[in-house]
Batch of 2 targets.
Target 1
Amino acid sequence: MKRASTGRRKSVDKALTLLIPWAPMADAEVIRDRANDRKLRTLPPAIAVWLATITHIRHEHTDYDSMLEDGYDRDAARHFIVDDINTVLTRWRATRLLAPEEEDGLEARQD
């Protein structure tokens, strides 16, 4: 796997700090890795960090995966977890929250 350039890593670090300054280190590391993944590397760092953050929170801090296992379709499950995602973003002092219509439109780049 090709590693992200030093400039890219620094830009992702800055975007991560600006977006979610109070994220726990363990979560921030996973988000940083996702934002530097080949699937998101072509995107601007701020967008890659946002998508990686939402994906991480969705899978690690909500009941999203359990809802899928229980038979909810992806769009329904995502609709029901928007408030949970925003709760985590608020706890991490995020500078942005997720709008319900935005969650419905996010592509599953990292899922």
Target 2
Amino acid sequence: MRRPEVLSRIGVSQSTLANMIKAGTFPKRIPIGPRAVGWYASQIAECMEKGLKRQKTDG
């Protein structure tokens, strides 16, 4: 998945995504070309699932 699709799927801004990547709370980017990166859809889904579980236990 490329960045626009990831942002749409997880519902955060570009800066929030950048902060999540920097903090290590988001899956690592996968190089898909000389100037392009993406993420595996399965890793995004897993990350979202972990976030939902965390919200349920916190709230």
